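note to self: dont lose this again. the chain is below, predicted strucutre after it. 424 aa total, dont forget to put it in the shared folder this time
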Amino acid sequence: MPAGKKNKLLLNFFSLGIVQAIIALLQLIVIPHVIKRIGAEGFGVIAVAQVVMFYLSAVTDYGFNQTATRDVALYREDGEKISRIFFRVLFSKILLCFIAFILLLVVLLIFPLFRSHASLYLLAFVYVAAQSILLTWFFQGMERMQFIALATLLARVIFVILVFVFIRDKDDDLLFLFFLGAGNFLAGILSVFAAWRLFRLKFIKPSRADILQELKDGWHVTVANLSSFTCQYSNVLILRVFTNDLVVGYYSIAERIFFTIRQVLGIFSQAIYPVICQLVQKGKDQLVSFFKKVYLPFLLCVCCGSIILFIFSPQVLYFFLGDEYHHSVFFLRVMSVVSVIVCLAIPAALTLLGMNEKKKYFKIYALGTVMNILSNIILVYYFKATGTVMAVFITELFIMAGLTREVYRATGRSSGLVWKNNEF
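---
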């Protein structure tokens, strides 16, 4: 790999890594303050609303983080082509944002569970609008992720300041997601301005056919992303249907800590994925050697961290919940084990993607989503939040085993990579 390319990859990785670390630290500061002001029950209300906003954001993202990023990376030396892609995608995302708002209104009209907190959901929609103009896909394709990283960091700092200044009691719970969206909206505006100035974009109004083609091209990726997204975020919604906001609040605290760990795993995966794509073409020896040198030490660190989290779960949760920490200890301890399972899935997942076996990859996640929903509905009905965390464990174990099995099957037929099962 050329030195310049390697340095750019390292810069992008550390830009994202440092920002994610700071965001995680800010979250550790904000959540105890919010719970102290609005209570665990109020935090449960926020958790459900945030999942709904995440779903609507997935509609506006529409797989552009994969499809548009690829287009930008391919044509970034062509200024006019980049301008066309930029405005075609931006107009498409804004259109999808309007569709998402209509979907939200329909949800509020149909479901009493959401209608009872209509003001919260309407204010929270600022987060979705912000995601529609945040140019992560563009800067990633141009390999200038440091700009979007700085914009994201600024958004989180603004969010923290607003939370500490204005959220003082339970009635202020509807401001939490509004502040999160407001910070992101400012970051989105800054990212558009930075892209316009840095890359000297020319305004080229997209036609209706351009937008329809963009939506058509991203459909399959969007379905796959929604499947993976459902597997990750449906737990809170299903739990709320069968329980109440207080139970959701206790579970959500443990889940937030778990998601912070998953962010670390995600950054590691993003960092080594380009290397995996190259090594799968060179044969098993170099790939296995790379996993031994890079992945195994990381796995060991994750295992050690998970053991520490398992042991000190009461102390960690006391920081967030105070004397009510005991309600969430079991959830966090199970999720500390799940973190190791997710980490064990990384080699198989990246190898399948590196071999361009995307259908097999998406198939496993689609099946995992079905299993997650079914196991959630059954287990939550009988065991409440304990059933939710059991469903998470079962789903992640299934995905890890399924990905590994598909790697064994795929590598035996690959011309670039042929392994024996006992050598993986």
